[in-house]
Input
Amino acid sequence: MIQIKDLNVELPSFSLAHIDLEVALGQFFVLLGPTGAGKTLILESIAGLLPITHGEIWINGSDVTRLAPEQRGIGIVYQDSALFPHLNVRANIEFGLRYRKTNPKKIQERFDQLVVSLGLDHLLQRSVTHLSGGEQQRVALARALVVEPKVLLLDEPLSALDPNFREEIRDILKQLHAETGISVLMVTHDFGEARYLAQRISIIDQGRLQQTGNADDIFHRPETPFVARFVGMHNIYPATFDGPVARLEKDTLWLASPAASGTGHVAFRPEDVKLKVATHEAGTHGNGKENSLPAVVASVVHQGVFSDVRLRSKTRQLRAIAPTSQVVQMNLSPGMPVCCAIAPRSLHVMR
Amino acid sequence: MRLSRPDPFIGLAAACSLLILAFILLPLVEMITQPTAADMAAAARDSDAVRAIWLSMSTSLTAGIIALVLGTPFAYLLARRSFPGKKLVESAVDLPIMIPHPVIGIALLSLAGKNHWLGRTMAEAGIRFMGTTTGIVAVMLFVGLPFFINAAKAGFEGVPVRMEKVGRSLGATPAGAFFRITLPLTWRSIVVGVIMCMARAISEFGAIVIVAYHPMVAPVMIYERFTAYGLKYSQPVAVWLILVCLLLFLLLRLFARPAKG
Output
């Protein structure tokens, strides 16, 4: 279990502010955010590898804020493995064992079990510099886990890998977590990885936590424009809510259910935009069942079965994902006026 | 058969390179081939010459070892920590490269003289600079340190901090991480730093001649023989110095070469 209480880190050009986060015992928690959001800083703060300005770090119920990294019982695996190039595979995995006071027989059992379950038994005498990316990451995992850490921190462990190794390591992570029951905090910028692995997700941007919840919450009910964009709701507009409608600049959209009055944002996914041939009566018209926004096609990019269509009107830009067959049938091309139909239930309200 | 004509730019670069190589090698080759075998044998039996070369070697090695012991932690701090005024500290480390050599000698002497409290304290402790091997080693250390520190620092900078961080997370103390991870990955750079420091120390003349004309290191003896007896008489000792240095540095380089593969 990891508890972060009001963590603040001040660096010359970056800061983490008021980070509160709890990874339950045995939970696989993913911290998701773009590059430069401060994810690695949070991991290194937990590990004691970074001087923090304010806040507390608790691991399995005890305050470790003032402990040195080597006293915290933490395993860490970085994106680039950070294997020791002067040691072979076996010596890398055994690096931390001399600091453990467990009896040698138990250590040997643990070592053998990990080496087998990570498929490293035939590589033990090899130099780590000649391993593939996936093998290196497996060695890094074994090295971190053999000392039986209380928690495992993973810093973008899949990002540097080729796609086929990425799936392999992703499945290994899932399996290791199930086998060992260890609390895991992983950071990544890839929503797909998070969805696959996480029992709980926190979104971070510019050193601030944006939203915490399970994958479905985050995907379907983003709370801020940033989170909405991050999970693929590319159409996000400031709006004023007034009963059953959201008023945008020059347009009005009908909502599925009345929202409390006030200002905020309305958002919808590109795949929820239906493109129609422009009708004569230009302008917004909603009848409570469907909204229609006029726009002009800016660009069309075919991506196999679906096409990415960028549109613009006088006041905004829109993005739609439409079946390529439809795009071809409508003969969509830049400059062509169309209507964007959006069902009220596809509209997501944020304030 | 090559199908493309070599680019004139590369040709020009190659011409410049050849010119520079010739400029460096011609005088040295000329000097090495000048003395006859008999001259060389005579110089090898000349106990003054042998003593001077030995003194140059032993004092520069001492300076190299002192630089290694005190400079390694310093280089590690410079590579790993950022602190206010770091640029100034780094510039200070490089100063001995720029200061004219006689000025270094004068500066060290003025500190070690009777007019300075440090000089008086050292004199009371029985440490003398003027005309002693201590003075020679001090001068050599002064001029050689920048080369050691910069080489060692570059070595430390080449080890990703993340490796030390992983080491710490696995249970190693800062010292443990240094000795089990960083040092095994940088000792070659450190040995190269010692070589650079010694090379610079052996070649020093201007500052040493002010601090200690006697006991005579090889460059001072070569200069003295040149001024007293002329070119021909100074050459055999110079050639011996070059040969001994080359051999020493070659051995150290071999020792510190990266493992194959």
About this structure: Chain B has a mean pLDDT of 92. The two ends of chain B are 32 Å apart (CA to CA). The interface with chain A takes residues 160, 162-163, 165-173, 176, 180-181, 184-185, 261 of chain B (CB under 8 Å).
